[in-house]
Amino acid sequence: MTDIATPATGEAPRQEPQEGPGTPRRGYARLAADESREDYSLRYAPHSFRRWSPSTVAGTALGGIAYLADFAIGASIVFTYGFTSGIASILAAATIIFLTGIPIARACAKYGLDMDLVTRGAGFGYFGSTLTSLIYASFTFIFFALEGSIMAQAMHQAVGLPVEAGYLVTTLIVIPIVFRGMGALAKVQAWTQPVWIVGMVLPFVVLAVESPGSWGAFGSFTGTEGAAPGFSWIAFGLGTGVALSLIAQIGEQADYLRFMPARTEANRRRWNLAVLAAGPGWVVIGAAKQIGGAFLAFVALEAVGKTHALEPIAPQIEALKPWLGTFALPAAALFVIVSQVKINVTNAYSGSLSWSNFFSRITHKHPGRVWYIFLNLAIALTLMEMNMFAALNKLLGFYSNVGIAWIAAVAADLVINKRIGLSPRYIEFKRAYLHAVNPAGFGAMVIASTVSILAFFGLFGRYAEAFSTFIAAGLSLVLCPLIAWLTKGKYYLARPNPVNGPGVEIADITATHTCAVCETAYELPDIADCPVQAGPVCSLCCSLDAECGDVCRKEPAAGPVPLPMPVVRAPAG
């Protein structure tokens, strides 16, 4: 007996497996079949599941950026390179992240797809995006470890809990929330938002009243590493590289944006604003937090020393002392813990999605998103125990070379290739219609990241080392359309998708079809026509098939199998 979920309700009716051609041969485990927890982790998010308003989705997505790594990153940049070069690098990185995030956020919200699925159809191919799934997964566990370290520092300050034990607590505390999926995440972000807002604003209000001259002194700060006064191009390039490590955050925003309801004439304005704010808009708040974190660390530097000034809890305490006195410690600790829970549930959630995408393609198995939560958290916990916080700048500087090469290639495809006809205008994510590897995006990313990493390690001189992330971004932006033009875009589709002709808007198609393999109904964008099954199959059953031999892509002359007429239509709105 196996459990098969009905996506619209999350119920799991029991079915007997049968044998023979054209009959169900796959049943998903209960956790994988329960979409109330699974959240369509490897699929198109259907309209029947997108029950939230644009403002609710945006609020949940923005709740995840409450993290205090921005404080530590901003402080580290300014302490190393001084105020002038440091602030310039933070603003430059924010501009790049904002511009590349716009097309990605809109694509994810419009087509109901996460970052991994968009990457498949935006120049990388079905297996080509497997590498980017690893890149994205590494982003989630690196930043989970960073945020967890900050929370452990706060618990150590507040109650004397050993930091090593704190690492374990910060890891375990998020599991029950992430296990329950988008519904639980939305509630946690909403309930904790007032505490976070008060905690974020209060220290700056206190300093504005009690130490109004601090900003002036901060403006002439040359750092703690002997940086020269004024602007330095080398310092600017290196600092920008560290700040650009956050560029993959757009993937975590996309994990929420895929649940955005369809854009209509009635909600068009609210939809556009919500996508802009919750997509690339996160970096506006992020850059402000980096600058604010650097300021708080500067004010606390003399009192607590450099090491503790880079830990967000200590500057928070120092800023609150004039008004709260002995209550500054518990107030600061509460703010830090709430902030870190808000972001680490997102890191763990997004990591589970990426690992699911990766392993489903490699192993042709999918036990359920929730099991990959434990893999992601185990890696993050290991990094925390290895004290990755001590090597913050170097680690993030290296990672940004790979992250920006990936994001820039996807953005180039969405903005350039799709507009001039080098790639399909819609996002095709299903295995049945994609080549294994598309050299346009995948090739651009590999070449750009390889060259930039060599530059990062000093192979091409000091200036190339400092500007390695700019090299990665520039090469990706140029190479993606160039390779697509040289190959005439022939590696985007292995065969035409019969339901995605010119003028068809995927986001408006709500008709459902029953998968010939799992006998579950899914909306049309999640369905492929399968010559082996002689009927429609859902995208996940297609991905997990290890025996079909990709007949549909290898023998296009046989023609597609027509999809049956729609059998169900989702309720209006």
Q: Could you tell me the mean pLDDT?
A: 84
Main sheet overview: 3 strands, antiparallel
Please give the alpha-carbon distance between the first and last residues: 36 Å
Strand content: under 5%
Biggest sheet strand line-up: 4-3-7
Specify the structural class. Answer: mainly alpha
Annotation, overall tally of beta strands: 7
List keywords for this structure.
573 residues, mainly alpha, three-stranded antiparallel sheet, 24 helices, 62% helix, disordered N terminus, disordered C terminus
Describe the structure.
By secondary structure, the chain is mainly alpha-helical. It has 24 helices and seven strands. It has helices at 30-33, 35-38, 54-63, 69-81, 83-111, 115-124, 128-159, 163-172, 175-179, 182-210, 214-219, 233-243, 249-257, 268-278, 282-309, 313-324, 328-363, 369-385, 392-417, 439-456, 462-466, 468-486, 539-544, 551-554; strands at 2-3, 14-15, 511-514, 521-523, 527-530, 535-538, 568-569. The strands form three sheets. A three-stranded antiparallel β-sheet has the order 4-3-7, with no helix packed on it. Strands 1-2 form a two-stranded antiparallel ribbon. A two-stranded antiparallel ribbon has the order 5-6. Helix 15 crosses helix 16. The longest helix is centred in the middle third of the chain and has 36 residues, at 328-363. The two termini are 36 Å apart.
